[in-house]
Amino acid sequence: MRIVMVAVVGAMFAMGALAKPKGETPQYKTAEAKHFTTAEGVELSPAFVDYFYAELRAELTKAKLVNEVIGEGEAVDDADAPKSLVISGTITEYKKGNVVKSALIGFGAGFKSLSMDADVIRRSDKQNLCVLHVHVKVDPRWNEKVMAKGAAHQMVKEMKKALTEGTKPA
Amino acid sequence: MLVMKERGGLFLDKQPTAIVKQAIEQSLKAANLLAADQESADLVLRVYLFHFGLAAGSGLDFFGKVEFSTMVKNIKTGESQEVKAVGTSIAKGAMRKKSMQKNVEEDIEEALHDATRNFLRGTQLKEAVEALTKGAGVTPAAAPSGGKTPSK
Predict the structure, then answer these.
(1) Residues in A touching B65 (Cβ below 8 Å)
(2) Does domain A26-167 bear CATH number 3.40.50.10610?
(3) What is the ipTM of this complex?
(4) Domains recognised in chain B with CATH numbers
(5) Helices (H) and strands (E) in chain A — how many of each?
(6) pLDDT tens across B4-62, in order?
(7) What is the value of pTM for the model shown?
(8) Which of A6, A164, B125, B141 has the most CB atoms within 10 Å of its CB?
């Protein structure tokens, strides 16, 4: 029994090691996240945009999609430009939500919601690598910054998926 | 300066303007671009600090932000240009005061580092220096003047 257990644990470790090779170098060298703009009618504070910008940069660093996440407006070496990304976007819709509706009905009714579109372009030739649409919903009692956190996480996840699929050989 | 009022107060031992001035001076010195004094400098930087420390975050973590604007001035011609820089950082939240102090300190340091890098590596500064030193035939060197908070 003990030998079987040791074999199972050993197999699990081996599968883990095979699944993701260690020291894998990121596909892109730099990524520049820009402050997102807000569409007309979106009632969000400028602090929200700042916080989302910070969260997006933090998520990009965590995802290890690029070697370095640079700030807005920073210069990049010409040699690195073909392997550099620029992420910009717009917050298209924001609904404040309704606490009463959420408490009485539940099941997601009255939730705060946020929609945003983002473009990921290559720095050198401005080619659009992917277009992302993110929609997040949170409880209306929660701080709007929590929504920014969720949106940034989802955006990076989708971006990673889109860029990985885009580079896979057919 | 008080940076965190909600949890009994966390203070910085120096004025934010002094910290920013020191950070820019150190970076310029490391690149051998810092002039000995204002008179011998080709360009003078006047820093206006808008935000230093923690900003309103989600409550689950610490959101550090450093934002400043710099007037790059050619003292010979009197021309000047504005360069903006912003640095942000997000650090883990904490419950214990000791870990909170550590995280806040790291967060502010990271935001300051980010802002300094954003300023020095930014295309705005490059363009301003190119425009202000055009035809002067000088190698860019700058002397930061004392950081000042914007007048309200």
Answers:
(1) 50, 54
(2) yes
(3) 0.79
(4) 16-134 (3.40.50.10610)
(5) 4, 6
(6) 666 666 677 788 889 999 999 999 999 888 888 888 888 999 999 998 888 877 777 88
(7) 0.81
(8) B125
